[in-house]
């Protein structure tokens, strides 16, 4: 049969890259990325200038009809777009909660992108889907979860928290959300509140429980709030504890919160996006005692496992809870598996088509073994402890939050507007060196600086340099302070 008019026999196949051309493209990209990796140590920790210019270089670009030159496209990317903003991959990134960026995970992404296998349904790629189930099982074991547990990888902690709230809602409130109330401390991450709103709750259905002097949820206040709400005819259904807050790294008393949840019949979710992987260390296991009692746990492998952004995880003690929440049948779908081991991710999570996230977790772990991850996390605990001791010993500096994990908060001591101004100036001066990037927060109504050590590329020399900068700039600023 001849093709109909207008349909060419020799169709344009330029989208079908040959192995050779693919290798050549990779070689070009590999050279750029290699240079990037090799200069990370000396690159500025942040680039405050040039953001607008970089954005303008691509903003409003017309949809190109023809092909661009590869080198020109890579020049635009690597020379104009990449060097702006925060250098989140470098050793000087001590801001917020640092992410990782292990290159082995990027190689895994390359593999899964080229393979382009479908992992939303087990039967479509049993081996690759199983990789994700396997890494999830490792994480469940790490949390001390029973064999009934399970979970899935998410694009991050925010979406894991959202799925946790949705699952708690389904399992504890059924179809009726009216009167439902959920509890999280005033230090909980804002994604928990966002999750509640996205799950259909009104702001007044979210209680922010006050925290104590160590920034941990006050369990007495939690108990009281639940009792008050019950007496008012409301339906308390979920408490979210935090294992490593973003402000100070505080870990709630997980056992005490679990006791309350058990007594009052609430779902216990633990947001361990930052702190969860410290359970690889002895100190972390002690700090997070009780995590195994949670109904669900959020982890962020792109934080404590040093993976690239876009890797989160939600675990539940009982995989059946995820299935009950997410499973919806459709005529065009293939038969689903049942049982614990063979998981169809579309049945236990909100997504259908999705990337092969298991591979980006699995490959770095099998290539290194878990030992270096544990050692790195132990080192970060030591570095934060060292920095806190060093800063706490300096006259004029107040340690506001000692590290419970690898995060500390401090400020120039004192009250009043002058001290606020000095602290803002301290932040500016330290960051102006561009060797580190640290970010502030407000604690007890006061402007406070924080250092979070979590990047696998951050070691003693850089933390010492940062502490020395804080000490020098504090001394300079205190000289300017008017005598009392
Ligand atoms: C404690 C905590 N929970 C949740 C999140 C949100 O995670 P993600 O940024 O991966 O969405 C963060 C982010 O830093 C966090 O620190």
Question: What would you say this structure looks like, in words?
Answer:
It is a single chain. By secondary structure, the protein is an alpha/beta fold. The protein folds into three domains: 19-89; 108-368, Type I PLP-dependent aspartate aminotransferase-like (Major domain) (Aspartate Aminotransferase, domain 2), CATH 3.40.640.10; 371-480, Aspartate Aminotransferase, domain 1 (Alpha-Beta Complex). Helices cover 44% and strands 13% of the residues. The protein is built from 17 helices and 13 strands. Strands 3-9-8-7-6-4-5 form a seven-stranded mixed β-sheet, with helices on both faces. Strands 10-11-13-12 form a four-stranded antiparallel β-sheet. It has a two-stranded antiparallel ribbon with strand order 1-2. α7 (190-198) links the parallel β4 and β5 (206-209). α6 (157-173) packs across α7, α15 packs parallel to α17 and α16 (416-432) packs across α17 (460-480). The N and C termini lie far apart (97 Å). The model has no long low-confidence stretch (mean pLDDT 96).
Number of spatially distinct domains:
3
> Span between N and C termini?
97 Å
Q: Describe the biggest sheet?
A: 7 strands, mixed
In N-to-C order, the SSE pattern is: HEHHEHHEHEHEHEHEHEHEHHHHEEHEEH
CATH architectural designation of the largest domain: 3-Layer(aba) Sandwich
Tell me the radius of gyration: 25 Å
Bound molecules: pyridoxal-5'-phosphate
The structure class reads alpha/beta
Task: Round the mean pLDDT to the nearest integer and report it.
Answer: 96
Number of strands: 13
Low-confidence runs: none
Please give the share of residues in helix: 40-55%
The H-level CATH homologous superfamily of the largest domain, spelled out, is: Type I PLP-dependent aspartate aminotransferase-like (Major domain)
In DSSP terms, counting alpha (H) and pi (I) runs of 4 or more, how many helices?
A: 17
CATH topology of the largest domain: Aspartate Aminotransferase, domain 2
| CATH class (first level) name of the largest domain | Alpha Beta
Instruction: Estimate the global geometry from the Cα principal axes.
Output: globular
What's the arrangement of strands in the largest beta sheet? 3-9-8-7-6-4-5
What proportion strand? 5-15%
